[in-house]
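Module 6 notes. Inverse folding takes a fixed backbone as the condition and produces residue identities as the prediction. Think of it as a translation problem where the source language is geometry and the target language is the twenty amino acids. Below is one complete input and output pair. Work through it position by position during the lab.
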């Protein structure tokens, strides 16, 4: 509820004109919703050439009138709230709020998933630490409320769900049950998570081999792990194809133009690329400026905490940050946002482990001091926004 209240505060400021939305972002928001609605009502597939050869939407980078970063699912999600009120006039307060409903829901669901995973891995202490970091993260709040930010929170939720659902499915293979039949719910869940991630950002197709790697590492029988992974990929393919209205020609053309691996390799030789990511990471969650270096120091120096539950989120976060460094332009910011929930889980895990030592009182004071300071700073900045012009 605290997270939702902060998001609604940002929406209110945009709506009241205290912090008006830039014309470019407002126009892009309108085009995105309009393209999705056009497809919902039987028009051209969003993000692809229209019937007359024109683009069904002009938002985002295009190549031959194809959106190279997003599938039609990205547009359909943006426009889905308007199906409940199809006669809402653009520019009205109701239209303004409805354009953000999907992303507010995604933000809440990602927070719930983060709490569930952290609590299962590290107990109540780890769950609360991860949840507080999430609820007071400026980047998460901005993306959920579309506060001068791209709508990447759906991709973040899909990526988080894909990784930890793959891990969960691998663990269930130790039970003496029928493998594929018993896991059909998790297969479907993994397929939906991958669809949401890849459909929101084509370059997140990298999660497909990552999910397979975790399953092969954890599963007792690799044949069963591969079978479940293949079934989940089949669900993903079916759902993505449905976003193209089962038009195989448009589907393959969209995949042909998609930017799946837009890494600029010389960016890794530029110190400014690393400085940019570190600076934006600090702005995304000021608490991580202290928490991540401290957690990394403990991880390196203390062998006891180098187990899979801590290592997996760290590896995924580092991989996403590496992709952000190699993508100095869009979708680099998307990778950085996706790394945040995994960093929250990693910090929560290390903190929970430290709280079990004989230095519990000192660790508890440090952890809650950092969390409290970050939360108060974020609330103070939100309050100050209403006084700015």
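Target side of the pair, the amino acids:
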């Amino acid at each position: 509820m605290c997270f939702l209240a902060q998001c609604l505060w940002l929406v209110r400021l945009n709506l009241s004109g205290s912090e008006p939305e830039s014309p470019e972002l407002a126009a892009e928001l309108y085009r995105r919703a309009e393209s999705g609605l056009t497809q919902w009502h039987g028009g051209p597939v969003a993000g692809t050439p229209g019937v007359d050869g024109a683009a069904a939407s002009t938002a985002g980078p295009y190549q031959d009138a194809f959106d190279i970063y997003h599938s039609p699912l990205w547009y359909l999600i943006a426009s889905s709230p308007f199906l409940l009120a199809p006669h809402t006039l653009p520019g009205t307060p109701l239209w303004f709020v409805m354009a953000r409903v999907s992303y507010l829901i995604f933000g809440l669901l990602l927070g719930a998933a983060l709490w569930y995973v952290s609590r299962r891995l590290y107990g109540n202490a780890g769950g609360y630490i991860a949840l507080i970091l999430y609820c007071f993260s400026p980047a998460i709040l901005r993306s959920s409320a579309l506060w001068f930010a791209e709508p990447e929170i759906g991709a973040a939720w899909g990526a988080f769900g894909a990784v930890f659902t793959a891990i969960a499915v691998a663990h269930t293979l130790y039970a003496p049950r029928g493998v594929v039949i018993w896991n059909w719910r998790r297969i479907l869940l993994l397929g939906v998570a991958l669809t949401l991630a890849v459909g929101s950002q084509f370059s997140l197709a990298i999660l497909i081999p990552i999910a397979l790697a975790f399953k092969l590492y954890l599963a007792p029988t690799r044949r069963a792990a591969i079978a479940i992974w293949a079934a989940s990929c089949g669900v993903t393919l079916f759902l993505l194809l449905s976003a193209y209205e089962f038009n195989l020609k448009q589907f393959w053309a969209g995949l042909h133009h998609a930017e799946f691996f837009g890494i600029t390799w010389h960016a890794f030789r530029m110190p400014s690329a690393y400085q940019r990511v570190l600076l934006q990471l600090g702005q995304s969650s000021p608490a991580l400026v202290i928490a991540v270096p401290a957690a990394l120091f403990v991880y390196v120096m203390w062998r006891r905490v180098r187990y899979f539950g801590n290592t997996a989120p760290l590896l995924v976060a580092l991989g996403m940050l590496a992709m952000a460094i190699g993508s100095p332009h869009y979708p680099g910011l998307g990778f950085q946002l996706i790394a945040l929930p995994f960093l929250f889980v990693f910090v929560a895990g290390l903190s929970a482990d430290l709280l079990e030592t004989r230095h519990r009182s000192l660790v508890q004071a440090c952890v809650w001091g950092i969390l409290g300071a970050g939360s108060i700073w974020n609330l103070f900045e939100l309050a100050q926004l209403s006084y700015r012009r």
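Reference fact for the lab report: The mean pLDDT is 86.
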